[in-house]
Amino acid sequence: MTSQHRNYINGAFVSSAGAAMIPVRNPATGAVLSEVPDTSADQVDAAIGAAKAAQRGWEALPAIERAGYLRRIAAEIRSNAPALARAIVEEQGKIMSLAEVEVGFTADYLDYMAEWARRIEGEIVTSDRPNETIFLFRQAIGVVGGILPWNFPFFLIARKLAPALVTGNTIVIKPSEETPNNAAMFMDLLSGVGLPAGVVNMVYGCGASTGRALCENPDVGMLSFTGSVETGSRIMEAAARNITKVNLELGGKAPAIVCADADLELAANAITASRVINSGQVCNCAERVYVERAVADEFVDRLTRKMAGSTFGNPLEDRSVDYGPMINKAGSDKVAGLVDRATAAGAEVMTGGEVADLGAGNYFQPTVLAGVAHDSEIMQKEVFGPVLPVNVIEDLDQGIARANDSDYGLTSSIYTRDIGAAMRACRDIKFGETYINRENFEAMQGYHAGVRKSGIGGADGKHGLYEYTQTHMVYLQA
Ligand code: NAD
Predict the structure, then answer these.
(1) Does residue 229 surpass a pLDDT of 90?
(2) Is 283 near ligand 1, meaning CB less than 6 Å away?
(3) CATH architecture of structural domain 3-249+453-477
(4) Distance CA 5, CA 13 (A)
(5) CB of 176 closer than 6 A to ligand 1?
(6) Could you tell me the distance, in angstroms and rounded to a whole number, from the CA of residue 40 to the centre of ligand 1?
């Protein structure tokens, strides 16, 4: 019988009588791995109620004690790393080495956020009045609702849970309906570390039902969401009714600018790595290339050879492949549609360009498109697949202007040996992140945040931690 995962509410695994069940599939084979409930609004409300009831007691604990639970979860994750990595590969389709990085990074992230316990600081501000002291406290917001995508499903649990808990919030998490198995394993491990009931709750289900119920409940103080721009917009609408704070990590359309003086081999390697990782299904992946005319032919040639050399297949059968299947058919259909319309509009296929038939699973060939107009659909819309459209620029100024001319503003990259050009890019590229002479992959002590439609607020580091706090000013006459 197919295994069924149960919600985790108020410290116990609970069944969801009468709920429709959602099948969870291996994207490489189509095989059903498990089922999860499409949780009703009533049960979502019960989880939020449990989180609310637990919050005051949790916040009253010294932060260092709260951090101790995070460290225990991290230790459990390290002890179970191989099984966790396998579960991620099985339901999400990424390759094993990347799943292993995801699991290790998740444990490290929990430990990193635990280290902030002794570093959450307020301020004392000078008053205009005699005998008065003004204090700024940083306090918990209350109940956080965490809504997750499927592409780094295990890490995203920690990215929301760890800063929320160490600052004294409690949380209700809804994983993606595509990838709940690793989340269920996370909760199995978490249930053994002795956390007070209600501090962490998990509800499974679809966005329009379970996710929406989480967004509409007035007892949620902050919605921390990672996913698409379209869903982010819906979440903001639902949050608007209760004036709920939102933290939105949305899509990207990362430009990579290759200057004429760049190390072209380094640039081709880094851009290829940033494009095929997780089959191109990463928010900060290189999505469009702007290369200076003087080196355009040579660079496109190098990039085409690297991309064409990227291998793909079922990651559980062949551990040597560079990437696995796309998450589902809708994902590969979307990529195919964008590529077909680009070629119909005159783009030249340098390599790839098609869905690959491996018998089962939805794979897209590693693809380079040359001669793509900057204002074309494929340079403007998030592809989320292993496809690189290339546009030729006359100089750096034009590259920066085209990079900025986008609805998205998450990550960006520039390849140059000229420190002056690099500094100009730092000043003038209007993105949340810029990588200079390296692949796109953020650090946990940085701040991952997008501008324009890529989001509101951010995650990681000190600034990401403080997103989960609110300030409380106190004026003391004494
Ligand atoms: P998605 O927006 O389709 O779904 C994300 C989550 O939102 C899922 O759990 C889904 O069930 C839920 N949801 C859907 N509709 C909802 C609603 N009306 N109310 C509440 N919840 C709802 O995104 P996805 O396909 O899972 O992930 C891919 C997208 O995520 C890409 O656009 C990618 O760029 C983005 N992403 C961004 C970051 C970042 O850090 N900025 C990281 C990873 C992924």
Answers:
(1) yes
(2) yes
(3) 3-Layer(aba) Sandwich (3.40)
(4) 9
(5) yes
(6) 20
